[in-house]
Specification:
OB fold (Dihydrolipoamide Acetyltransferase, E2P), 127 residues, alpha+beta
């Protein structure tokens, strides 16, 4: 009598799908999850990766206010630039010093011994 009540209300004692069908459905859901999560993760990571945060620990922030032959003014303070400076754009690619412009935002690291000589700089050019 218990089974007849369940069938009248649309409830069944077992699933209509066989054991293999349920297994294939679960496997399909797992595979779909495995396929979609890396794509979502990649898009989030790519959108958040606008600068190089892991390499900028100890860097100072500023804006270029003047450009001279061998010096730069960043936030009205003068810094020397050596010929062997490592200059990167915001994506981590080498940047030609000739592309520098006033109002560009920079993250820069000065030499330990001389705090007015820039040894590394990341430049975000205005768009």
């Amino acid at each position: 009598m218990n089974d007849s009540r369940r069938q009248k209300k649309g409830l069944h004692s077992g699933s209509r799908m066989g054991g293999q069908s349920r297994l294939f459905l679960r496997a399909g859901i797992i595979l779909l999850t495995i396929a979609v999560l890396p794509i979502l993760s990649f898009n989030i990571t790519q959108a958040d990766d606008q600068s190089l945060p892991s390499t900028t620990v100890g860097y100072q922030n500023g804006t270029i206010t003047a450009i001279h032959e061998k010096t730069l003014d960043i936030d009205e303070r003068t810094y020397s630039v050596t010929p062997d400076i490592v200059m990167l754009d915001e994506h981590g690619d080498m940047l030609d010093p000739g592309r520098l412009m006033v109002s560009a935002e920079v993250k820069f690291h000065v030499k330990k011994e001389q705090n007015n000589i820039i040894e590394k700089m990341i430049v975000k050019l205005p768009r």
